[in-house]
């Protein structure tokens, strides 16, 4: 929680396993540890004993999608891929839940995808004009049509040719009876790792936390532009393109990934702690205590406390039980709806000057509420400290910011934001500070990070989005 | 979570409101903030416009029990009581979900109960022999039969006479079209507070966190042996018995209550922090970092860190999404089931000597797992520090410890426990330390706390349980 | 269907079996053949191996209430009772589905009931004033409270004493671990029969069709005022009262019972055929063909055709699939809702003078619709012939006619009815004709039939209903 | 019911409406009257105000698929198509429920299909080799791919070209925002009619009973090889091929269609009555009464009775409530499962020689059961009279007889069948008798009927089925 209490969403988590006696259960456990990447649907596909692929998918959390033992028990095969999904507007039906399973005369193929393609619309239009029929609104399906229309009998050759046609951010898992393929876009926008179980089975998944959960050891991060092939002869890495440039999404480090995951060698919790430390160096405030917004900002708050010497206090409590939102007849009750998620610990904050640490500001409305909550609980002042730069630009590679109208920082100056939020002061981590704090061991631009939502500097052409995206005039390139 | 990862359960949370336009929604919000007290069922009863009472109840979390808007929307009346329930073995049916609603010719009555009666079986036998027919297996229902068989037309008089007949731990809410009654047992084993909304409506509920969630201000803790009557003329307090002695359940402070709640003037988070400080004084260990078991032990861990000067680190991550447990075909997969709940942050604990703080040890099996998890993540040593004394005796007042066979501390010495758990050392807070740390402003025995599960010294006769409870020979009275 | 397309409903069907290896399945099959007696809920209770009783109940048809194999499979005991229910207004909750199961310290007791008690309200008031707490709104439960409050340890003696206190129409099944009891009211208002399987197990149930379905042979009709006790020593009949007078509900013969059932020696199909024949004698009409309203009036139509010499034609088709009624936005679409149930066969009726035979007129609105349907299909004329007398008075013994406002015949003369219905002529069977046609081998008044809904002549005092029932001025006693 | 108690199934019913304010409700009502054609799934698609198509589909009966008001209420557009489905083995998932809805960039298209294509497998293989991706296993989808791959912008031209490529039996509805198309295969194997509401809206549907139900008047039967286009300018008929030969499925007259429907000018009920009359001429038997197997054989039984002069009696009762079949632990209970559907009226059949009329024999096992049921009820003898010829050959045009192993008549002589069934004699209607009785006003072979399942004489090449279909040696061509 947070990114201003889930105003911002990742689009997916993926998990695959090859040759494990408990493939479906393993995938279930792995997906459960990736549940933070998507909560609107889940599915698992296995290669069954007869060589055909079998699926089960459902809406909601993994525990909802797999609510009966037989739903998992029927998936008996030793190779599997799975997916947890965050659904963007208008695409909430069960038919959009992944993996997508395609039955062909020769063999079945299943796809699971994390990311967003930037040329999906134009590819789809071309394909439809050539007679293709799509079953979903999802851009994921484009890849299957491309593969199917390539000439030649070699599936991997057709897959590689197709991967070169799609643009944007993508981490794909492709399952057939013969192999499990994993492919990462040429910028490596989304994380993807390979690991192995003690029984020899290979795992490919979004984050290392899933490897830990299923008891696998880490082998390597998949590199930008790579295709991994896992089959009964082992695992093989090869580039499907040589035009690559690492631009891993910086929001993975700031907010999306789980604190116990490590991406390209950098542990998430420690990166956030360093963001908090750097923020304390850049923006010291007059406070008695540091309070982090649970849970995603606790690491940054701890860093701010360590660097500033202020005590790190449990001033906000998150209710661990999910709350329905349909009960909102009046403004007064709506506020109580928010109170269902967060509570202030009066005994801690009463009479105190509070340094409140959060990871981002999206709409600002929840920030305003949290500040008010602390003041009603008796805080003398609340200084809001954000462990990342202002979010001003859309993302086209897999985060659900497609326009800037709802982004507070795209529409207001920092003093305006501070006034609207009602904080006594408002501070953001600088872009340089962020890049330094993450400290990726890379010599690529921005040290291998994508920071486009902060500075509008996209590492790729925007293809289908180029026409509609108008770069805001207020954009200030920070790093040049 | 914790009390060794939910091996120990509270039996209920209750909430009532009188004369609020949004009574059912308010109760829903209040119950949501009390969800940690019971997750197996929930219900709400309102006094409808026609003077009759209407209910909706369901199994599971509040969000499951009220899964459709109309289920709440039909409860339109301005007075309500609600209940969240933890069900003990064999009583899981929908018919045991509270509140219990009774339709009589004259008027309807609803009951909601938190606690456990110690003479329910003998009262029930007497009542059945006299022709009573019970609808449930729950001891809650006994009160209604007692009320109904009292002579006289004055409901409150019959209620008071009945309250004097029941023994044990109880916080009862009783709703009629004329009044909302709240009654607390003569020892005040369970917490119960009164508050008020700005619109004048009165609230009675288990914890102050529910008052904060619904926007009510705190008025007072209900006192042992008190009956509170709330009706259209205001609220009235009176004793139904004068033989009282405060013995509030110390496990409320140690584990059950929410950190932002305050019971008899003592904030839970701060009490836990003091337990951690005292533990550091009593049991310093050779460690590099302090790690608390999330979430309930984070306060104690913070106290241990502050007192010891060691850094308080986020070494364990709790998965915030609930995990189904039906997928457990093999021992190996069963361990992964536990890994679904907790993960170690390798980057934090690798190479470190860890002071691991937890609130209690129940069976010890999960403690063993957590120690192993940390060591597999590279911890050099793990010292397990428990912020309460060893749990050795059953509770008869509302916690689900009815026998001691499963309690590790009732069956093993501390060195044996340490060996079984695999920790490098194991330390418990002393009983004196616990009582001092909670620091209740009371002159009653044990400063107003019930600590019977630690020392076998029950503050009341045990009635129906007296025959079966054999005090273990190893029991050592600590406080005398 | 019919009784003017289900404007009239039976209240229940009951089935019990003692010592059959497949007791629950047998009860399921038996209840399925009694489904026409109640479609709003069903339940089965078995005596399990441990001597306790176990239940499963659900809303809707039997197939809905038992929608999962395990719901029936768990009911493993060799003795069972079951119930299918039609729910009167305001009592639709799951808590009113029978059998009712009561857990006592000594033993469990289950009750299933078909009928309506006429002194339930006054008995309930007395019992509540004496401290009883009822769990449902159902009058069924009264019997259990009476039993429980009788003195003495002999269950059968307490049951017999209690049966003498209740008034009205009732067929009760009472199941304990020691015996299955079946009791019929002193007038025998509702049918109840005993049978036996080839494996020696005894069956008690509402109609003989259930005996045939489960493969049992008929032993005898339970007689008015009898208590049957079935236990491991066999079956025993004894009167619980000697003040009896057979008054079996004539609507069982006219409409409720299944055509293949036989009650007190009279087969239902043949009784209806005789009603049709007698109607042809009493009311010949100028027609080309006879058309019965499917399915309940087909027997009477066949009798009318045989007697009149007119061809019996399939002029109306019933859609065998149930239709939801929630789709009724406009008057036009509402009529189509009715068309979902019945259709005219144009090729049969076009240009024909039709003798339309139905069993009763309740509200008359559906009769009007059916006449219109036939005329729109081209019928030259439609003569409506009802194989029973006009329904004018309420029933207090188990049919859901509790007031006469909705009964067309209680409010209009026959010519008025004919005009409103739009028929070319309208004829009812005479009361004498009905009694002769049923031809019960009895010397009791009305030859053992209750015909009170036709003539207002109730065979018992009305107790709780006496005050509110105002005998309509237009009442004409036919039989005196 | 019957075709030996549903051993034989139709594959679908379809319904479409253009420009009706209540299009979805109308389709719901229409589909309800076509429910006998398919009970495993149902769906409706409407053209919404924005020009896009919206669907709702579900498993089970229409009332199950549309179990909540909003499921229908959301379908607000004025043009709709709907489908009820019988699913063949292995294709039971929700993804196979029709209509199939395809979203394209330019416009959406929905398809509903009744029938079976004989060249679907080869077309699909070709299409997949050319890059097509199918979403279902259904042959219905082939048409959409063919349309999509035709050149040219004119949808109707592409549709007509595609219709010429598919072979077998088909009645297709195709819905776009611009028009509703209805197409019938060149043999007219399946029925399809056009009608009109008083409000001017056009209807196309499988049977005239659906026109009657929704209040539409009949315009015409769609002719073999015709494409009907309904749009805002009216309705237009045109052939898509001139190579046509009427071969309407004779089983529609014998068993599938509803008695009140009329196909190519012949009313179903009357055709069946004529089959019964002809059967009486061909096969008089020594009987006291005629009994029809309810409900589908009642018309034929009535004809047999009229012609033979024997009384038509209600000797078998059908339970109108559906029975679950999962309760079948033993052979004894399995028989009771069948008894749940049918019961003999002992009072009618005891001591009688019975002429039992049924429409067909499929497996013969249920025939055997019915004969036994009558004999156990006391019938002196049972002569089984089948109102159609022996079923010996598979159907490839839309009935679920794809192999002959289960067809009793394909494997045994008539005397062998009679012995196995246990009847006193067994008689089938002759093929000539059947064709004469249906009496279609056509000069095509077999007077416009397909009778291939009786004589193996298929009116078209069998394409994909030609290789696997081995014509049985015992086949005797009747009509040559």
Automatic annotation (TrEMBL), chains A, B, C, D:
It comes from the Bacteria. Signal peptide: none annotated. Pathway: Purine metabolism; IMP biosynthesis via de novo pathway; N(1)-(5-phospho-D-ribosyl)glycinamide from 5-phospho-alpha-D-ribose 1-diphosphate: step 1/2. Binds 1 Mg(2+) ion per subunit. Keywords: Glutamine amidotransferase, Glycosyltransferase, Magnesium, Metal-binding, Purine biosynthesis, Transferase. Its EC number is 2.4.2.14. GO terms for molecular function: amidophosphoribosyltransferase activity; magnesium ion binding. Residues 12-233 form the Glutamine amidotransferase type-2 domain. GO terms for biological process: 'de novo' IMP biosynthetic process; purine nucleobase biosynthetic process. The active site is at residue 12. PROSITE patterns: GATASE_TYPE_2 (PS51278). Its cofactor is Mg(2+). Mg(2+) binds at residues 296, 358-359. Pfam families: GATase_6, Pribosyltran. CDD domains: GPATase_N (cd00715), PRTases_typeI (cd06223). Catalyzes the formation of phosphoribosylamine from phosphoribosylpyrophosphate (PRPP) and glutamine. This is Amidophosphoribosyltransferase. It comes from Loigolactobacillus bifermentans DSM 20003. The lineage of its organism: Bacteria, Bacillati, Bacillota, Bacilli, Lactobacillales.
